[in-house]
Amino acid sequence: MRFIHTADWHLGRLMHGRHLTEDQSYVLDQLCDLVRDFKPEALLVSGDVYDRPVPPAEAVTLLDDFLSRMVLELNVRVLAIAGNHDSPSRLEFASKVLADRGLHLFGTVGPETAVVTLSDELGPVVFYALPFAEPAVVREKLADESIRDHQTAMKEMIRRARASHPDAARSVLLAHAFVVGASVSESERPLSVGGTDSVESSNFKDFQYVALGHLHRPQTAGGPHLWYSGSLLKYSFSETSDTKGVNLVEMDARGVCRVEHVPLTPRRDVRKVTGFLKEILQGPGPGENPDDYLMVSLLDTGALLDSMGKLREVYPNVLHVERPCFADGGGSCRNRADHRKLNDADLFADFFSQVTGEDLSPEHAKAYEAVVDDLRGQEREAVPS
């Protein structure tokens, strides 16, 4: 059995105010090509299909176009669950009708676990779908007052799912959860407040493959059969070193899975650039795309005028500029001049350089000193009224 595992698309996402719909469309086109080449029996989407419960119209259009290609053109089954960013009822709209065409959308939990059974020449594979739900919702739906947190909710939902599992059948679980010990990044929204959002990896021991969503870094989580495929794109500057993509999975007759994480090439990368303003304004280095989304860390200690505007003339998608020498009392730049210790003349020289693009000449320095001396003299001579 072949299937592709992906998650955390966050369609409709904004990054520092920039719409990412075109970037998401670009990699979804690559995913279509991958499906066409790999020829899987199913595509699994483990939650956070959208970035917010009421997605923008262009995000809905993008998803409609992609799913239409999957189901109508490529004849691939799609199984998708809601994540904590999705609206459960909106995501599973018309799901009963769409299931007949091979599009299985699961938004809400219920007393009975959602199941899709697919077969290959080796026998059946049972796919269990556990969309994200708050513990209070699971407690109500399952009528079980012992459910108090995500751990007890997940444990009980899986217990009920496994109770009717066919003997000797292989099994795959789709879930949207934070497994203890997994690596997080800055772009994930916490599942709950107070540190009770995690679940134990031991919950998933009876499945041959667990297709997880929620964490944006591709990784295993407590075992070789527990996988986060990671997000579709880099959604924060904490993910610059991550390789985003999808998991290609081949399951043999015993349920043993061979997993390959296949990268997707973004239209624009997300990168950090560090240096002095003049150096960075010289332009990108070999192999660097000037249209990438950038966070620029400037090492300059003096005054800078409109650094963002100047940077965007060379790199139009600079999203954030930071001055580490001004943070933490200048501790990150101890070997450089502390701007707080510069005198007025030095600060003016930096300002002059930024405005004119030239160094302050001795003549200009003397003129500045004369003006300042005159002003200070007037202050000393001023008589309070």
Number of DSSP-assigned strands: 19
Q: Determine the N-to-C terminus distance.
A: 91 Å
Helix content: 25-40%
Largest sheet: 6 strands, mixed
Counted by DSSP, the helix tally is 10
Low confidence ranges: none
Keywords:
385 residues, alpha/beta, 6-stranded mixed β-sheet
Describe this structure in words.
- The chain has helices at about 20-40, 55-75, 90, 95-100, 135-140, 150-165, 275-280, 305-315, 345-355, 360-380; strands spanning about 1-5, 15, 20, 40-45, 75-80, 105, 115-120, 125-130, 170-175, 180, 200, 210-215, 220, 225-230, 245-250, 255-265, 270-275, 295-300, 320.
- By secondary structure, the protein is an alpha/beta fold.
- A hairpin with a 5-residue loop joins strand 15 (about 245-250) and strand 16 (about 255-265).
- The strands form 5 sheets. Strands 6-5-4-1-15-16 form a 6-stranded mixed β-sheet. A 6-stranded mixed β-sheet has the order 7-8-9-12-14-13, with no helix packed on it. Strands 17-18-19 form a 3-stranded parallel β-sheet.
- The protein is elongated and about 90 Å long.
- Helix 1 (about 20-40) runs parallel beside helix 2 (about 55-75) and helix 5 (about 135-140) runs parallel beside helix 6.
- The longest helix has 20 residues, at about 360-380.
Concise account of the structure shown:
The chain is an alpha/beta fold.
Give the arrangement of secondary structure elements.
Blueprint: E1 2-6, E2 14-15, E3 18-19, H1 21-38, E4 42-46, H2 57-73, E5 77-81, H3 88-91, H4 95-99, E6 103-106, E7 114-120, E8 123-130, H5 135-142, H6 150-163, E9 170-176, E10 178-179, E11 198-199, E12 209-213, E13 219-220, E14 226-228, E15 245-251, E16 257-263, E17 270-275, H7 277-280, E18 293-298, H8 307-314, E19 318-322, H9 344-356, H10 362-381
Parallel strand pairs: 1-4, 4-5, 5-6, 8-9, 9-12, 10-11, 12-14, 17-18, 18-19
Antiparallel strand pairs: 1-15, 2-3, 7-8, 13-14, 15-16
Helix pairs in contact: 1-2, 5-6
